[in-house]
Amino acid sequence: xxxxxxxxxxxxxxxxxxxxxxxxxxxxxxxxxxxxxxxxxxxxxxxxxxxxxxxxxxxxxxxxxxxxxxxxxxxxxxxxxxxxxxxxxxxxxxxxxxxxxxxxxxxxxxxxxxxxxxxxxxxxxxxxxxxxxxxxxxxxxxxxxxxxxxxxxxxxxxxxxxxxxxxxxxxxxxxxxxxxxxxxxxxxxxxxxxxxxxxxxxxxxxxxxxxxxxxxxxxxxxxxxxxxxxxxxxxxxxxxxxxxxxxx
Length: 248
Prior knowledge:
Blueprint: H1 2-22, H2 26-57, H3 65-71, H4 78-83, H5 91-97, H6 107-115, E1 139-143, E2 146-152, E3 159-160, H7 163-171, E4 177-182, H8 188-200, H9 220-223, H10 225-231, H11 234-240
Parallel strand pairs: 3-4
Antiparallel strand pairs: 1-2, 2-4
Helix pairs in contact: 1-2, 7-8
GO molecular function, one term: RNA binding
Pfam family, one: Ribosomal_S5_C
Family: Belongs to the universal ribosomal protein uS5 family.
């Protein structure tokens, strides 16, 4: 009886161990989960991290005159770029002044948005106390059948609008605003573009404080001509970037 009982117990233990490897009992599920989780999780995580590190360590080599002036700290703010209406053709220029975004899935949209950035003018409702908080005047934007009108609001009112224009107005730095919309606002694409069109028109209306003549100094391209010709010739850029085609 003793030999039969010990042999049966050993057989049961062996079956349980084999079942655990196959996932037949609770212990098997645990062993199976730990083995796969450790192997796959560590391997994939390290691989992606290594690829991300290489892309982040890549140094920005500007290919436009504006990019060279920005990298050499000759232009110190975005306001200087907009003052002379200089075209921004490199998204790294925006990264140089603002915090960089890290989003792999929407990287193309982020680059396009940085190259399409527009200045937004803000103003007051009533007395000019504190910082500008609303739109400076009534502006209207249109896209398709949708017409959006932005109206200045007193301080503390908030943004009175639908969720789509409210998001855009918040990102534009507007704290208080009334809105009025007409047309098929269910088409959210046209609704958002009409709001963006209205925001971009805030500088189209000249209020009395903008009537005085603006005295322009030399454009950054003219002021730093010697610097661009001396330190950034096309040959030096080709040496740093071999993929660039040779000049004709």
